[in-house]
Prior knowledge:
alpha/beta, five-stranded parallel sheet, two-stranded antiparallel sheet, about 45% helix, about 15% strand, globular, binds adenosine monophosphate
Amino acid sequence: xxxxxxxxxxxxxxxxxxxxxxxxxxxxxxxxxxxxxxxxxxxxxxxxxxxxxxxxxxxxxxxxxxxxxxxxxxxxxxxxxxxxxxxxxxxxxxxxxxxxxxxxxxxxxxxxxxxxxxxxxxxxxxxxxxxxxxxxxxxxxxxxxxxxxxxxxxxxxxxxxxxxxxxxxxxxxxxxxxxxxxxxxxxxxxxxxxxxxxxxxxxxxxxxxxxxxxxxxxxxxx
Length: 222
Ligand code: AMP
């Protein structure tokens, strides 16, 4: 049953992969602020020009800009039955804004799921992460490599790319930002009784998906 789901976790914790698997099952939109921002940068829009440096340096885009993007997106007709938020909120201010936006619509969040992975595993995962620029499929050269060297399994001839912010130095900066600015959100949702933690270290995306699925199916009981 669809719902409003927040996925939390550091960079490379598997939010994108798990969001993709939830939306496939639940038929609700996958809303990733990172993906929205990257599209703006690629399309060289006004917003794209304003936020480019934040992404390339691994810093957070200011709350005002981020919340405007989300407010617009969750007001979309396709969001009535729910959605998976991936990468939002990332600060207490964003979490409070989300609550306010939902409150104005007479809605509420169903569950916040944290995918927990230790920093050193994250660095290893992200330096091996590759994405198909055509279909968005996420590969990991170590534990979920493509069948052919650096080529998407579903898009013949398309070469996989590495995200510009998946360099070790930027990853370390993104981890610092996560610990300083995003981790306080865990207590915020815990206080509301909405937080569920999935220990994701050393587990395959399939194993994690099973646990996430159980939580999503049981969310009425949260
Ligand atoms: P992600 O794809 O979620 O790892 O996000 C990539 C980058 O986009 C982050 O390192 C930030 O620079 C920016 N970003 C994504 N979501 C947010 C957010 N909720 N608040 C601020 N910046 C964000």
